[in-house]
Automatic annotation (TrEMBL):
This is Dihydrofolate reductase. Belongs to the dihydrofolate reductase family. It is an enzyme of class 1 (oxidoreductase). It catalyses: (6S)-5,6,7,8-tetrahydrofolate + NADP(+) = 7,8-dihydrofolate + NADPH + H(+). InterPro entries: DHFR (IPR012259), DHFR-like_dom_sf (IPR024072), DHFR_dom (IPR001796). Residues 1-160 form the DHFR domain. The keyword Transmembrane does not apply. It comes from Aequorivita echinoideorum.
Length: 161
């Protein structure tokens, strides 16, 4: 099952200038719990925001640059190639961004783990719109604003109908 995982604002904002718009420790913890032991598929810009590869995950990095190489990354040149490699060894690979990769991968996704951050933000990268005609919300868990979280948010799990 191909799963897209993201945190997005009320207007699908993901980030600005290759950075996140918020700091949500509990969401980072959930991301780690869900993706550990799996393939994670991302674009080059997303990969380069990490100080080092995330532990206990196989990083598939999509780039148009045929000469791109980075330690800790399996470099591929299309979403289709990334999915084929991931599905050969993992029944639950995750698409982790960025915006362009989410847009290209939406047609292949069977599940979306979306953290909806309750606020609107100035952004230059967005999560793609998806139709509620094609997707069903199967779980929604609210998380209030608190001393560690400047914004309230809701974990939403969507599955393709």
């Amino acid at each position: 099952m191909i799963t897209m995982i993201a945190a997005a604002g009320e207007n699908n904002e993901l980030g600005k200038d290759n950075d996140l718009l918020w700091h949500l420790p509990d969401d980072f913890k959930r991301f780690k719990e869900l993706t550990t032991g799996h393939y994670i598929i991302m674009g080059r810009k997303t990969f380069e925001t990490f100080p080092k590869p995330l532990p206990n995950r196989t990083h598939l990095v999509i780039t148009r640059n045929n000469k791109y190489e980075k330690e800790g990354a399996v470099v591929v040149h299309s979403v289709e190639e990334a999915i084929a490699i991931a599905k050969a060894d993992d029944d639950q690979p995750f698409i982790i961004g960025g915006g362009e990769i989410y847009e290209m991968a939406l047609t292949y996704a069977e599940k979306i783990e979306l953290t909806r951050v309750h606020g609107t933000f100035g952004a230059d990268t967005f999560f793609p719109e998806f139709s509620r005609e094609n997707w069903k919300l199967i779980e929604s868990v609210a998380h209030p604003k608190d001393e560690k979280h400047k914004y309230s948010f809701t974990y939403e799990t969507w599955v393709r109908k």
